[in-house]
Amino acid sequence: MEEFGSMDRRSFLLRGGAAAAGLVLTAGCGVRPLRGPPSPAPLNLPPVKVAPDRVIRTVAGLRPYRSEGFVVRAQRFDETTVIHNYGHGGGGISLAWGSSELAVELAEEVARSGDTRHFAVLGCGIMGLTTARLLQDRGFRATIYARDLPPHTTSNVGGGQWSPFSVYSSNAASPSFERQYERAARISYRYFQDLTGSRYGIRWIQNYSLRSSPGRARTGMLEDLFLDQEVLGPGEHPFSTPYAARFTTMLVEPNVFLPALMDDFLLRGGRIVPREMRHLDEVLALDAGAVMNCTGLGTRSLFGDDDLVPIKGELVVLLPQPEVNYITLGGGGYMFPRSDGIVLGGSQERGEWSLDPTPAVVDRILDRNRAVFEGMQI
Ligand SMILES: Cc1cc2nc3c(=O)[nH]c(=O)nc-3n(C[C@H](O)[C@H](O)[C@H](O)COP(=O)(O)OP(=O)(O)OC[C@H]3O[C@@H](n4cnc5c(N)ncnc54)[C@H](O)[C@@H]3O)c2cc1C
Q1: Is 90 exceeded by the pLDDT of residue 294?
Q2: In the chain, domain spans
C-alpha cells in the first residue's frame, strides 16, 4: 500500500513504478515472451533533449491534499449556504468536471429550496472555473471572486495528465467517499473528451511507464478508463529499462485550458472580481444567494479545515519539442510534452508551504530525466 493509499501516482512514480499513472503491475501476466537480444525499437519516439541550457523555467506548486479525500458538501452559516468543492490533491485537474458536477447538483438543491439564481464562486483555479461554467449551463448566474487568476493559480502549475491519483489515502477514506470519487472521475473522463482539440489544449496521448519487471496493468476501480494497455518487453521499446507498460490517456494543458474556460465564462455573462477573502464574514456578506467554495488550499484558513495539507511539487520546464508526443513515467520522474514546454516532474514534499523551487530537487529531476532519454536506443 502506498503512503497515500492505492490511488497514489507519484510516490510509486518516485520508485520508478508504473503506478506513476495509477498503474500497478502484477508480475508475469500479459507480457510478450522474450525474443532474443534487444534490437532497435520499432516505435517512433524521439528523445527529449535534457540539458540545463534548455530549461526555460522552474516552478513549484502546492497540491491541496486531504488523506480522507476531497470535500463536496453543503454547509449552512445562518442565512447563507456554502457548497464546498476543494482538496483534490494531485488529481484535481483530472477530477475537475466531475467534482464540480457533484457540487452543482447540490447548488440545484439549494436553488430549489431558496429560489436562488445567483451564486458567488470563490476561486478561479480549475475547480472554480468548471463550477462556474456548469452553473451557467444550468441557467444560473455566477460571479467569481478570487485572489489569484490564471496563470497564477496552482491549477496552472499542474502537469495535466488525466490521471486522478494521489488524491486520498485508502486507509483513511470512507466507502462513501470512494463512491463519490469514482463518480467524479467517471463524469470528468467523459466530459473532457468533448473538449479535445487545440482550443482547449486537450489531447489523447500514449504513456510509457518504465519498469524493471514485467506485469499486467491494474488501475483499481478505474481500470476500464485506461485503454490500450500493453506491456512491451526487451526489444519492443527504445527505453533502457527491460519493460515499458503502455497505455493511453488524455493530457490537459492548463495554460491553454484555463484561459479558454475563462473566455467561455465571460462570454456567457459571467463576472470575475479579483479579491482576496480574508475572513469568513467577508464571504457571508457577499451579494449572492449561495457560495461555492473552490479555494483549494485557501480553505484551510478561510474555513478552518486543518486536515488539508500542502504537498509541494516542483517542475522543470524545457524548451518545447513539438516532435515529442508521448509521456514517460518512472525512472524517478515523469515527462509531459506540452506546447508551453517539456514538463519534467516527480517530486513531493508533504507539509511544505514554500513556493520556491529548490536547486537540489531541480538537479535531481534533470538528472533522472537525462538518464531516461540519454539511455534510449533509437
Ligand atoms: C506539481 C503539480 C503537478 C500536478 N499534476 C497534476 C496532473 O498531472 N493531473 C492532475 O489531475 N492534477 C495534477 N495536479 C493537481 C492539481 O493541479 C490540483 O489538484 C488542482 O489544480 C487544484 O485546483 P483548485 O481549483 O482546487 O485550486 P487552485 O488552482 O489553487 O485554485 C484556488 C483558487 O482559490 C483562490 N483562493 C484561495 N484562497 C482564497 C481567498 N482567501 N480568497 C479568495 N480567493 C482565494 C486562489 O487564488 C485560486 O484562484 C498537480 C499539482 C501540482 C502542484
Answers
A1: yes
A2: 1-28+68-305
Model pTM score: 0.91
Pocket of ligand 1 (CB under 6 A): 61, 63-64, 86, 88-94, 122-128, 145-148, 153-155, 157-161, 163, 276-277, 294-298, 302, 313, 315, 345
Write out the H or E segment, with its range, that includes residue 192.
helix 175-193
Task: Tell me the three cell numbers of residue 27.
Answer: 508480475
- The atom number, within ligand 1, closest to the CA of 129 reads 25
pLDDT recorded at residue 2: 27
Per-residue pLDDT for 14 more than 80? Answer: no
In this structure, what are the phi and psi dihedrals at residue 251, rounded to the nearest 5 degrees?
Answer: -120, 125
How far is the centre of ligand 1, averaged over its atoms, from the C-alpha of 64 (Å)?
7
Top CATH class of 1-28+68-305 equals alpha beta
38's grid cell: 534487444
Residue 300 DSSP SS3 = helix
Residue appearing with cell numbers 509541494: 312
Of 287, 300, 273, the closest CA to residue 79 belongs to: 287
pLDDT digits (tens, 9 = 90+) for 192-204: 999 999 999 999 9
Q: Which atom of ligand 1 is nearest to the CA of 311?
A: 53
Look up residue 114 and give its three cell numbers: 431558496
Q: Over pLDDT 70: what percentage of the chain?
A: 88
Ligand 1: residue of 9, 63, 72, 129 to mutate (most ligand atoms within 8 A of CB) is: 63
Phi, psi of 136 (to 5 degrees): -60, -40
Is there a contact between 119 and 141 (Cβ–Cβ < 8 Å)? yes
pLDDT by residue (tens digit) across 42-98? 688 999 999 999 999 999 999 999 999 999 999 999 889 999 999 999 999 999 999
Nearest Cα residue to 84 out of 93, 92, 75: 75
113, three cell numbers: 429550496
